[in-house]
Amino acid sequence: MSLDHLLEWIPKGGPEEALARQVEFDRLPRHVAIIMDGNGRWAGERHLPRVEGHRAGVDAVRDVIETSARLGLEVLTLYAFSVENWKRPAAEVNTLMGLLKRYLGLELETLLRNNIRFNVIGRADALAPDIRTELLDAERKTSKNTGMIFNIALNYGGRTEIVDAARRAIEAGIKPQDLDEDRFSNLLYTARQPDPDLLIRTSGEMRVSNFLLWQIAYAEIWVTDTLWPDFRCRHLLEGVVAYQKRDRRFGGITPAVPAGVR
Ligand code: FPP
Questions:
Q1: 103 in contact with ligand 1, CB cutoff 6 A
Q2: Structural domain count of the chain
Q3: Which of 45, 97, 214, 233 is the most buried (most CB within 10 A)?
Q4: Of all residues in the chain, what percent carry a pLDDT higher than 90?
Q5: Which residue is catalytic, options 63, 85, 115, 137?
Q6: How far is the CA of 85 from the centre of ligand 1 (A)?
Q7: Which residue has the least CA distance to atom 22 on ligand 1?
Q8: How far apart (Å, rounded) are the C-alpha atoms in residues 162 and 185?
Q9: Is the beta carbon of 157 within 6 A of some atom in ligand 1?
Q10: CA gap 233, 100 in Å, rounded
Q11: Is 115 a domain residue?
């Protein structure tokens, strides 16, 4: 949106303000995707059960969503629950689902106030009926919003998404010769959204973990050692500033395309 809109929200005179002033608002990443990692380690460092890390992670989710909307991102995608996460103990899965439900109950007002459109990506039909009801309600109530899209990846897998897109192509009777990259992109869960320009991963791990495999083809990757529950506005701004220093070549050669220029 604008520097002023962001400055209204962040503490004055701190590192956030200094970083906000470094951001070039005319070449923001359009789409930022985040692999939220390190909740378990955060809890372990404090001798707490793993679920306390997830609970603390919700504060980071809140902060990052409002920062992203005020910054003026078009799309923010958060990886909240993968198709592989069902392998975790049932109590941990139940806590994650409970936190999601609670988050939606408490934060719908924030999404509406910030003109954010809530959107679920993943095989949501496999989630419990009460969670699906909450998710659908949040999608419906925010569907007329015109600001940032907040994608939450739930029961999400990158390979599953590609298989689902292929199935859709077959079901729609698309002829092989009519299928190209643009058309295929519009069969993905993120249809009609720009691909992520910036992929952030917390907790220092150098993996993409089956996240947005098709869409991150040309994303800039920024990894921070910060564990997700400690991730705040300041870290997001650090990632954006680092992104704006990169040269994006999209497989070509010089002259390089500066980040944010398409
Ligand atoms: C990875 O940390 C994190 C997750 C699998 C879940 C992320 C969920 C939240 C932040 C809370 C709920 C979200 C919303 C939107 C309300 P990990 O457990 O793999 O950490 P570790 O690698 O340190 O064990």
A1: yes
A2: 1
A3: 233
A4: 93
A5: 85
A6: 10
A7: 38
A8: 9
A9: no
A10: 21
A11: yes
Q: Stretch 19-35: mean pLDDT, rounded? A: 97
Residue 258 has pLDDT above 80, yes or no: no
Question: What is the span of the domain harbouring residue 73?
Answer: 3-19+30-244
Catalytic residue flag (residue 85): yes
Which 3 state secondary structure label does DSSP give 76?
Answer: strand
Ligand 1 probe mutation, 36, 94, 155, 202, most atoms within 8 A of CB: 36
Q: How far is the CA of 67 from the centre of ligand 1 (A)?
A: 19
Q: In CATH, what number is assigned to the domain containing residue 45?
A: 3.40.1180.10
Contacts of 26 (CB under 8 A, 6+ apart): 260
Closest CA to 5 of 78, 114, 107, 150: 114
Q: Is residue 222 part of a domain?
A: yes
In a domain, 250, yes or no: no
Domain assignment present for residue 256? The answer is no
Residue-wise pLDDT for 130-189, tens only, equals: 999 999 999 999 999 999 999 999 999 999 999 999 999 999 999 999 999 999 999 999
pLDDT in tens, 50-68: 999 999 999 999 999 999 9
Integer Rg of the chain from CA: 18
Global pTM reads 0.95
